[in-house]
Amino acid sequence: MNSIKRVYIPRWLNCNNVCIFIEYLECYRAMKFPIRISMKI
């Protein structure tokens, strides 16, 4: 769980930067489903 938090917390804060690598909709979902993004990456 700790490793997952360290993965998705910074991505949630840097959502705009993440949008460069993934679609905008995926970035929006990252805020609702951060775990999904960590699993995808």
Topology (elements, then pairings):
Layout: H1 2-13, H2 15-21, H3 24-32, H4 34-40
Helix pairs in contact: 1-2, 1-4, 2-3, 3-4
The main β sheet shows up as: none
Indicate the radius of gyration in whole angstroms: 9 Å
Strand content: under 5%
Count of discrete structural domains: 1
Unreliable stretches (pLDDT < 50, length at least 5) are 1-7
Mean pLDDT: 53
Succession of helices and strands: HHHH
Q: What is the tally of beta strands?
A: 0
**Percent range for helical residues?**
over 70%
Number of helices: 4
Write a concise keyword list for the protein shown above.
41 residues; disordered N terminus
Please, could you describe this protein's structure?
The chain has helices at 2-13, 15-21, 24-32, 34-40. It is mainly α. It has one domain (2-40). The chain starts with a helix and ends with a helix.
What's the gist of this structure?
With 41 residues, the chain is mostly helical. The chain is 85% helix and 0% strand.
